[in-house]
Structures are given as structure tokens and as C-alpha cells.
């Protein structure tokens, strides 16, 4: 358990620094291109999201689901997995180059899928940005290939810390661009070719650095990596069969996301739209990434080892323990972000009056935070057993719900039930509800497979944490009102919004921990053990 605690602490620290610098990166970007009701921001948001979407097909479709369990099994080979890794990396590099080239050729149609009904000038700007951003696909893939291999070899730190380099480079570049062009440039017509090149190249340069830094740590794996185009006879066929289902799953998720953004773009230039959704998701992902990634990743490696050894009882124990620990931290984080949603959203908009509508989008996403964390463990348990087919079906089910709720939001807008300002928030809420239903279905399917997942045990823990989160969120909201609420000093600037969000968040967490300490929640001890790993000398 101490090994998992050390790994979790290292990942949490790296993820926290990465996410904080990522937030700073977005703050600076808002100063360059705007956010709420900015057509230029939505054009760049779509272009910069394209490589992430294509990369998700590769990462979710192959790497996360397949490579960690397969590398764990390959270490039992006589060569320690060297042949498998060399062949897999050679094949992966070829696939990445082909995917990048294909995406570059299809830049126009890819943008049209999301912005086809928007003005031609906005589409043209998005296509111009995409030519600079799409090369990120190759470097995102390289980062994932190397990083997931390091994780599988229990070298957890570099994969998490590398994005900090990306954020630092981007922040410096965006500050330079802002000084050169005196942003924010929110109108499409303000973007000349030189300005497009500066912004696109800066965004891509950060991803290049993020990937190349990981190669410095490769010698620690003990693997001799070399080009090997002889792809037969080492088990890549098994990888292909497993990846087939996850690729289809990732493709379905990508399609659902494109439809969401297509519907949300109706509000582009007038109300919260794509960029606000992306920024709200960034805030949402701060607690998710810091907590779920740092704790869940080491558990996934352990789950894979226990599943490979046929130790089902240990797998069940891993599931319950990991969900309770994740729930302990995430419930407190949820309460803190709910209470601080408005000042936190102020960080990502130019005007204070834009913060409350943006906060509604964030709150809608937060509904699905705890279910998404549970799904992380449930889904990866299927992966640990080499089952990618079942996750495909319950993900398809979720995607159908996401598409239905997105079109439902558009129907409510057209019928006049919701205003244009609430379109993005309604779409986000639909996604959260869809994820919640997906998690329930996935848990039931895993229960059937393992006989039991001891759901009553970890659900009881989540209810205890909710008991502490409700009064904590109320106390945090009270602190926000004492600071002046929506007309107070926290709405005056991005900096004041960040300070206000921190004050509200800390107050919320203090109350949360106090309530759980009063009821003597057992997970407090385990949480303390994890947190002490951050202390110097530990």
C-alpha cells in the first residue's frame, strides 16, 4: 500500500502543478482571443480541439485500454518485453504519422462537421488554425506511447509532470502574442495570417516539448527500443482485437462530442458556446485529473497485475478501496468547486458579467464528477481482464444518450423553453446525466462478471462523504456572499476571481473535513497517509 501511496502522491503533485499551469495558460489565452461570445475563440477552440479528438481515438482506443495490461503481461517474456515494445512502438509511430497526414488533408471537412452552419469567415479561420494545430496529433501520440509504457513499468512521475513544460512554453508564447497584438482579438476579421501563425505555432510547440521530454526518462524502463517492422509473432494480433472495440468506442465518443459542439455553436458570438464549454471542462478536470489520475493510475496497474494472476478477491478489494478513496477526495472537491463556481468562472472570461452564465456550464458538468470517477475504476477493471467489448457497449449507450440530450437541448431552445444563454449549460447537464446512467449500467455488468463488486460498501462511503459535502458547500457559498457575491470584488478581474475562488474553496474544504472528522470517517486515515507523502523527506 505504501508503494501505491508514494506513486499517488507523486502523480497528484505533478497533476496539480500541471493543471494549475494549464489554468494559467488558459487565462493568458483568454486575454489573447477572448472567451464568452467570441467567434474567434470558438474557431481556435475547435481547431485546437481537433488534435485532442484524434489523439483520443488513439489514446483511449488503444493505449490506455490495451498497452498497460499487455506490457504487464509482456514482462513475463524471456526478453522482458523488449521485442513486443519495439514492434508496438514502430507500428504506433507509423499509425501516428498516417493519422496526422490524413487529418491535415481532411482539415476542412473536420471543421465543417462542427461549424458547417456558421459563417464562412469563421469556418475559414478555424481551418487556418487547424493547419497549425493538427501536427500535435503525432506528438500527443508519442507522449502517450512513452508515458503509458513508463506507467506500466511503474515509473509514474514523468508522464504527469511533462505537461508542465507545455504550459510554461504556451504561457510565455501567449504573453508575447498579447504584447505584440494588444488582444483580446475576438472578431474573426482581426486575425491576419501572421497572427494565426504565431498562435498556432505556440500551441503546437508546447505539445512538442511535452512529448520529447519523456524520452529523457526512457532508459529507466530498462527496455532496448529499436525500429522493428516485423510485426508478426509477438502478440500484436491480440492487441489489434482488443483495440478494435476501444477504437470504435472512442470513435463513438468523438462523434457525440462533435454533435454537442455543433449544437452549442448556435450560440457562438452571442452567448456561452464552445470555448466556454471547453474552459468549464478544464475547471471540471482539475479535481478529476489531480485525484482520479493520481490515485486511479497506480490502482489500474495493480488491478492489471491481480487480474492477470487470477486473484479476483484482490481485484474486488482494489475496486472498493479505490472508489472510497477517490470519493473521499472528489466529494470535497465537488463541494468546493460548486461553492466557488462563479469566481472560478470569472478567471476565464473578460467581463465579470459573463461569469454567472459560464458558471452554469461548470455546475452542469459537476453533476457527473463522482459517477465519472466510479466509471474510471469500473471501466479499467474490464480492461484489466482484457475485456474491451463490454465497455464498448455501455459507452455506445452513453453516446446515444449524449446525442439525444444535445438535440433535446436544441429542441428546448427552438421551442423557447430555454434562452440562448442556457444552451451550453443544458448540453453539459445532458452529458452528466448520460454519464451517470452509463456508470450504473457498467457497474451492474461488472457485478455480473465478478459475482459482486461490493457496491453497498463503497456506496455507503460515498453517502458519508455527501453528508459532509452538503453543509460544506453551503458554508462556502456563504463565504462567497460575504465577499460581495456577483457584485463583489471577486468579479472585478481574473486575478480577483482566482483569489476569491481560492478563499471560498479553502473554507469549503475546512468545513468538509471538520464534518467528516466529527463522524469519524474511516477514510480520513488513508487520506492522511496519502497527503503525508507530499511532506519533505517522505
UniProtKB/TrEMBL annotation:
<feature type="transmembrane region" description="Helical">
    <location>
        <begin position="322"/>
        <end position="345"/>
    </location>
</feature>
<keyword id="KW-1133">Transmembrane helix</keyword>
<feature type="transmembrane region" description="Helical">
    <location>
        <begin position="458"/>
        <end position="483"/>
    </location>
</feature>
<dbReference type="GO" id="GO:0015648">
    <property type="term" value="F:lipid-linked peptidoglycan transporter activity"/>
</dbReference>
<keyword id="KW-0812">Transmembrane</keyword>
<dbReference type="GO" id="GO:0034204">
    <property type="term" value="P:lipid translocation"/>
</dbReference>
<keyword id="KW-0133">Cell shape</keyword>
<feature type="transmembrane region" description="Helical">
    <location>
        <begin position="390"/>
        <end position="410"/>
    </location>
</feature>
<protein>
    <submittedName>
        <fullName>Putative peptidoglycan lipid II flippase</fullName>
    </submittedName>
</protein>
<feature type="transmembrane region" description="Helical">
    <location>
        <begin position="124"/>
        <end position="146"/>
    </location>
</feature>
<dbReference type="InterPro" id="IPR051050">
    <property type="entry name" value="Lipid_II_flippase_MurJ/MviN"/>
</dbReference>
<feature type="transmembrane region" description="Helical">
    <location>
        <begin position="196"/>
        <end position="218"/>
    </location>
</feature>
<feature type="transmembrane region" description="Helical">
    <location>
        <begin position="357"/>
        <end position="378"/>
    </location>
</feature>
<keyword id="KW-0573">Peptidoglycan synthesis</keyword>
<dbReference type="GO" id="GO:0009252">
    <property type="term" value="P:peptidoglycan biosynthetic process"/>
</dbReference>
<feature type="transmembrane region" description="Helical">
    <location>
        <begin position="88"/>
        <end position="112"/>
    </location>
</feature>
<feature type="transmembrane region" description="Helical">
    <location>
        <begin position="239"/>
        <end position="260"/>
    </location>
</feature>
<feature type="transmembrane region" description="Helical">
    <location>
        <begin position="54"/>
        <end position="76"/>
    </location>
</feature>
<dbReference type="InterPro" id="IPR004268">
    <property type="entry name" value="MurJ"/>
</dbReference>
<feature type="transmembrane region" description="Helical">
    <location>
        <begin position="422"/>
        <end position="446"/>
    </location>
</feature>
<feature type="transmembrane region" description="Helical">
    <location>
        <begin position="280"/>
        <end position="301"/>
    </location>
</feature>
<keyword id="KW-0472">Membrane</keyword>
<feature type="transmembrane region" description="Helical">
    <location>
        <begin position="158"/>
        <end position="181"/>
    </location>
</feature>
<keyword id="KW-1003">Cell membrane</keyword>
<dbReference type="GO" id="GO:0005886">
    <property type="term" value="C:plasma membrane"/>
</dbReference>
<dbReference type="GO" id="GO:0008360">
    <property type="term" value="P:regulation of cell shape"/>
</dbReference>
<feature type="transmembrane region" description="Helical">
    <location>
        <begin position="495"/>
        <end position="519"/>
    </location>
</feature>
<dbReference type="Pfam" id="PF03023">
    <property type="entry name" value="MurJ"/>
</dbReference>
